[in-house]
Amino acid sequence: MNTDRLVDLLSSNLEPVSRVRFGKALLLAMLTGSITAFTLMLATVGPRADLGSTAHLWWTAVKLLFAVSVISTATPPLLRSMRPGLEKKTHPEIIFLPFLAAIVAALAMLLFVPPHAWSAMLRGAHPVSPARCLVCITFFAAVPFAALIWALRQGAPTRLSLSGAIAGVTAGGLGAAAYALACTSDTIPFIAICYGAAIAICAFVGAQLGPRLLRW
Amino acid sequence: MDELAHSHERELRALMTASLDGDAAAYHRLLEWLTSHLRAYYRQHFTRIGHGPTEAEDLLQEALIAVHTHRHTYDRSQPFTPWIYAIARYKFLDYLRRTKSSLKDLPMESVQELTAESNMTAVDSGLDLQRLLSGISSKAREAIQHVKLEGLSVSEAAVRSGMSESAVKVAIHRGLKTLASRIRQEKRT
Q: Are A69 and A98 in contact (CB under 8 A)?
């Protein structure tokens, strides 16, 4: 095929293109994702029974704060990754901030208690808590991840592993927000390590799947 | 960015903005500019990985279709050259991935490479438009045939095919996207 012919083909009867706001698609994906994650949480593990008490409500708020800060630092780079050419202006490093803050807070908390209490703090409410946390968050993150990939595909991401990883972090954050209402492990080190690890798994899976799901 | 890229930037951005508003002549000029510069860019990189000008032309055509089907991702408030360079670079890296070729360190942004003067003679790509078209849905093929090849207006094509105007537009857009993915599959070795 002759390239000039292709140029003629592409430019003949050109349709105007209206301005698109990818923020809308992203927001829609995050809404659908979080509703699904929340419904799944209600249908499986359910919210913690003692959610009524002020202390437990406060801990749930702390977990939600962590999840929301993860989501809100990951969303701007995710949005920017949908348009080619913004790579140099995008700073995905800010995504590490909430995790760093959580780890610093966790270390500070550990310093306040004697070393023999550390394992209880790290383990959470039950011996199975860390495993339950990892499984639930990654499970709840699956649908948000699929929705975010759908949204990303409306744009033209050029760094597919990175975009996939950021989508994974955002989905993990949404999964963590849903799990926050069910989680009974009320220690900062537990949140930093288990929530952090669950979201890191989501990021890893996202980075692996990105090149396959996002290519265009 | 150097002086040359700067002067091009203003002109290209104006052409792109007009194209997005539906100015076919501006779009034609823009695609012609892109053709010559992307051709030079891909040929230069293809010699480095030991692939010939025909393969470079294949990728050029794939990139042009990608630019077309993703033109909505250009933000009018942003400079044009980084946008086009990111697409050109992405398409090249995608080509490397699927043909399992390798090339070390392709810089993130070297706009100068794209804006460097280029007057390379065209070669035909190894792609056969009719064969590619035969691989897409009959609705999309008909729409592309009417509007893009025979030059009918969208409303004329709609009357002929018994589809609504918006259905014709959607069919063309989807058809071109399928066409691009067909090219990608064909070029996987």
A: yes
Q: The whole model's pTM is what? A: 0.87
> Any idea which residue has 């955002």 for tokens?
A170
**Contact present, A197 and A168 (Cβ < 8 Å):** no
DSSP A192: I
Shortest distance between the Cα of B65 and any Cα of chain A, in A, equals: 8
Render each residue's pLDDT in chain B as its tens digit; 189 residues.
Answer: 344 556 689 999 999 999 999 999 999 999 999 999 999 999 988 888 888 888 899 999 999 999 999 999 999 999 999 999 999 999 999 999 888 776 655 555 555 556 555 667 777 777 788 888 888 888 888 888 888 888 888 888 888 888 898 888 888 888 888 888 888 777 665
Instruction: Tokens for A10, please give them.
Output: 């592409």
Contact A3, B64 (CB under 8 A): yes
Residues of A with CB under 8 A from a CB of B: 1-17, 19-20, 82-88, 155-156, 158, 211, 215-216
- What's the number of CA atoms in the CB half-sphere (13 Å) around residue A121? 18
Q: Give B64-75 as a DSSP string.
A: HHHHHHTGGG--
